[in-house]
C-alpha cells in the first residue's frame, strides 16, 4: 500500500494545500519551523485520529478559524483497491469517512482495517522512527547494546513469549473487575469521594463568587492606582526638574522661536572683509586711473598697443626675426597652394593631440602596446562588476546615515536615562521616616511612663503609659508599612531604568554591528579596486607604457592604435605638403616664440601667421612713432591695465550681489552683521540644548505655571496614596474571607479536581484497553513463529550492513553472550566496541531487515522524521543511497532539514518547504 496524494483543508500553518507522492522515495526538505513536523502529524492524524489536546503537552493544530480542520489521504495498491480517507472535526467532534474505488462514501469511526488493526504506536514501532528513537537506542547501556539491537530486528516468538505477557501484566496492574488495589479501581473510588465534596461545596458558591468578584474589582482598581501613582511620581520628578530649569528653558524657547524665523545664508568665509578690501582697491585704482587719463585720448583704439607678447619677443630677437619671417611667408604660400591637404593635416594633428591628452601621454614613445580583444573584454567586465558594486554601496550610504542617526538617538536616550537613574540613586530610598520615628518616640515614652508607674505607683502613669505604648506601636507599624511601600516603589523604578538601559544598549550593539558590516564591505570593495588598479598598472608597464598613462582610458577603447594610425597619416601629409622642413633652421627660436605667446597648442599655420603679423606691426610702429609716442603709449597701456583690474573687481562685486540677491554693498554688509548676531544666538541656543532636558519644555508651555502644576500633582499623589492604603486593607480583608471559604472547599475548584480525576481515570482506562488490544495486534503483525526468523533477519541485516559500511563489515552474528560484527579481514568485533556512528548504521540495517522480512504480511509506508542529521557526510551519504535503493520496492516518506540530501541522490518526489 502507498500514499498517492494528501490534501490539507486546515492543519496548523498548512491551509488548502495538496502534495503528490510517488511509490518510491519522497523527501520533504525545509528549515526548522517550515512545517515538516506538522505534515507528519497530519498524515498520522488522518490515519489514526486527531491529537487529544486535553492531554498535557499536546500541541493543538486546530488554530485557523477560517479553515475546516482536517483533510484527505488517497491510498493505492491496498487489499481493497484505491481508497480515499477524509477526517475532519466540527464543533469538537471528529468526522471520518472513506470511499473504495470511487464508490459511495462510507461513514465510520475507525479505519484500522486498512493497516491490519495496528494502532498509531504500533505503526510507528514497526514502520516509522525519528532521531529521538535513534539517539535513545544508541545511548543505551553499552553492556545491553547487542541485546537491544537484536530486539529491534526481531519479532515473532519474542512478541508471544516476552512482550505479550508483559503487556497483559500491565493491564492487570491498571484494572481488575473485582479488585481494589489496581490504579483504575482506586481512581474510581476517588471520583466518588470528590463528587460528595463537590455537592457539599455548592451551597457556599454564591457568597464565594460575590467576594471573589468584589476582590478582583478592588485588586484591578488597586493595580491601576499603583500604575498611576508610579506615573505621577515620575511626573513629579520631571516637574521639579522643569521648575529648576525654568529660567534657562524660557531663554531657550525664546531663542528657538527667534531662530526659526530667521533664514541663514551660506556666505563665503570672511565675505565682509573681502568686500571692504575690494572697495578700498576700487578707490585706489580709480585715483590711479584719473592720474593716467590726463592728456590721453579716451578712445583706446587711437593708441597702438605695443605690449603684444609676440611683438616683444621679436623686438628682443632682432638678429633672427628677418630670417624667421621669410620662413613664415614661405610656409603660408605652400599651404595656400595645398589648402585641402593642409586642412586634413590640421584635423589629424588635433585628433592625435586629443587622444594623447586623454591617455595622459606627452610623446608617442610613452604609449603601451594595444590590448587584445580578449584582454580588453576581460578587464572591462571586471571593472564593470566593481563599478556596479560601488554604485550599490554608494546607495547604501543613506543606510549608514540612518544608522549614524539611530546610534546618536540611542546614545542620547541612554545618557538621559542613565542620568535620571543616577539622580534616583543619589536621592536614595525615600520613605515616611517621620511617621516611623514618631511611633518609636511615642512607644518609648509609653514604656518610660509604665516604668515610672512601677516605681511611683501613680495610676495616671499606668493608664497614660498603656495608651501611649499601644498608639506608638500602631503608628510605628503604619510607618513601617509606608516605609516598605516607598522602598518597593524605589526598587521598581530602579528596575525599570535598568531594563530600559539594557534594551537601549542591546539596540546600540546591533546598530554598531550593522555599521561595522557595512564599513567592512566598503573597505573590501576599495581593496578590490586597488588590487585591480595595481594589476592594470603592472600590465601597462609590461606592455611598454609610461606610468603617467591613464589605465582607465587605455582600457576603454583602442586609442593607441588610432594614435599610431594618425601619426603615420600625419607624416604622409607632411611629406606630401613638404612643410615639415619649414622652421627647422630656427626650431629652437620658433619653440621659444610659441611659448612666449602663451596661447596653448597652436598649429604651424597659426603661429607662422601670428609671427608675420607681429613683425609687420613692429615695422609700422617703428616707421610712424617717435620716443614721445612710445611714452604716451606706455601710459595708455598702464591706463588700460588699471581699467581692466578695476573692471574685474567691480564684476566680482556684482557677482556677489547677484549671488546673494542684494542691491548694494551696504545691504550686504548689514545682512552679514545681522547674521553674525544671529549666529551668536545660535551658539547660545546650542549650548542650552546640550545642557537642558528639552523634553521638559512641554511643562513650561502649559496654561498653568510649573509651580501650580507641581502643587496639583502632589495633591493627586497624596489622594492616590490614601486610596491605595484603603484598598490594600479592604482587599486583605476580602482575601482572608475568600481563603476561609476556600479552606472548606470551593465548588469550581472541586469541580476542576473532580474533572481532573475523571480525566485521569479515562486515561488509565484507555491505557488498559490499549494494552488489551496490543496483545492481539502484535499477534497479527508479527512475521510468524517460524524458527528461521532470526536467521532471515540477520541475513538481510548483514547484507544491508555490508552496503552501508562500504564493505568494512561483512556479517552479523548473534548468540546468548552478545552480538558481533565480522570485518572484511575476518576480524570479529563486539558491537559494544563500535563507534556511535557505526551503531547508527547497525540500527538502520536491523530495522530495515525486519521490515524486509515483514513485507510478506504487512506493507505500509515507512515514515522517517529527521533521523540522520548528526552523522558525518560519509555515513549520511551511504544511508541516503540505501534509502533510495530500498524505496524502489517500498514507499518511504522522509522529513529532513538536510539540503545536501537533494544533491546526494536522485529523489523521486522532492518538496522544498
Summarize the structure in words:
- This is YhaN AAA domain-containing protein.
- The protein is α/β, with parallel strands linked by helices and 913 residues long.
- Among the domains are: 1-118 and 859-913, P-loop containing nucleotide triphosphate hydrolases (Rossmann fold); 392-542.
- The chain is built from 29 helices and 14 strands.
- Strand 12, helix 28 (873-886) and strand 13 (892-896) form a beta-alpha-beta unit.
- Helix 5 (157-174) packs antiparallel against helix 25 and helix 9 (271-293) packs antiparallel against helix 21.
TL;DR?
The protein is an alpha/beta fold and 913 residues long.
What is the residue-mean pLDDT, rounded to a whole number? Answer: 76
Strand-residue fraction? Answer: 5-15%
Largest sheet: 6 strands, antiparallel
Uncertain stretches of 5 or more adjacent residues: 140-144, 152-163, 299-307, 776-787
Going by CATH, the architecture of the domain at 1-118 and 859-913 would be 3-Layer(aba) Sandwich
- CATH superfamily heading of the domain at 1-118 and 859-913: P-loop containing nucleotide triphosphate hydrolases
- Could you give the count of β-strands? 14
Radius of gyration based on Cα positions: 51 Å
